[in-house]
Fold:
Amino acid sequence: MSQFHYKASNRAGKIFTGQIAADSRSSAARKLRTQGLWVTYLASEDAPSSSLASIDSLSQSFASHSDLGRKDAVLLFRQLHVMLAGGLPLHEAVSVLARQESGGARRVLLQAAEEDLQKGRPFADTLRRFPQAFPPAICELVAVGEASGTLQEILERLADYLSTAYQAGEEMKSAMLYPAILVVCSLCVIILMSLFVLPVFTDLLTSLHADLPLPTQILLGTSSWIAANWPFVIGGLFLLAGVACALYRVETVRLAIDAWRLRAPVFGRLRVYSSWQRLLDTLSVLLESGIRLDRSLEMLSGTTENHYLRQKLHQASKSVQSGQPWWQPLREACPASLLDMAVAGERAGHLPMMLRHAAALCRVIAENQLKRIEAMAQPVAILIIGGIVFGILLSVAMPLLDAMTVVS
Structure:
């Protein structure tokens, strides 16, 4: 038998360190689990110690430039949950995953986590260095799981939650993609016809010496102006985009735009329910993990990209701290039916459960709205692009038909 040094915690969060005799690392981890301890570090006495200081500095450089995303977080939590359920201690599970990665940001993350765990640092501290993949609320939940000895259960719930949130986000992007392509195609059709098609007819139409219809005059005038000033047109578009980006950085403008996005026709309803589905799901997980309501709301504000919702959640956290109802500042940003469900759950003492039900309702409404948008997108696209092309062709054909009538 070999002697193993260990560091573990029980469900009350009390830390234990010591030695245990076992035939293997897995056997030692199982013995500690039967004692009700959650293993965070386990190493043999004769195992060589290795220094990974270079990895720590490398992880810092990758912290703001890595290609880690939410999909990587889902995969990582799912793999760790399976390994921890099999009896492996956390640092050994992380080491196994690090050896499986051939390179890239995921390997940097896992190697940094392996080093931190060997030094006795929490796994959550490593995740905090990669905020683009692990928001503050996620890191806080991992820290709670480490301290309470429930990391295996927390990782499973986080994997389920992040998987649902990632799928909802991808569906939202798919719904937005078709209208974006429609706008780009429409602009391309207008520009190409103005630069290459209409100039061919300009000399012919002006040589008729007839009164051109107003639509034809507007079309030819616009085409000639674009053809003569196309560098200024392109420069103006870039300038307009730059000004828009600069204005969006102004807090008041950004709040107004993000608030309008939630009230916009067609897509506003989808954004509202998709956003609140993720927020309510996250809030229920935070509360069930024992985090105070004001702290949960504050962490929740850091998980959304909508600054209007972020401001309202921050105000809700302040309301709790001042003894006011937490849901009052959310009246303008959250659908009334969802808040009514949450208030009813709070009065009955089952707020986390009711938040999950409200999130499920949001999911159903968002999915139905998404199906409506997808069903409307194709016919609307055909009507818009067809209308543009038909208008241009009609403006060209009208004077030609008039000329043919005069000649005949």
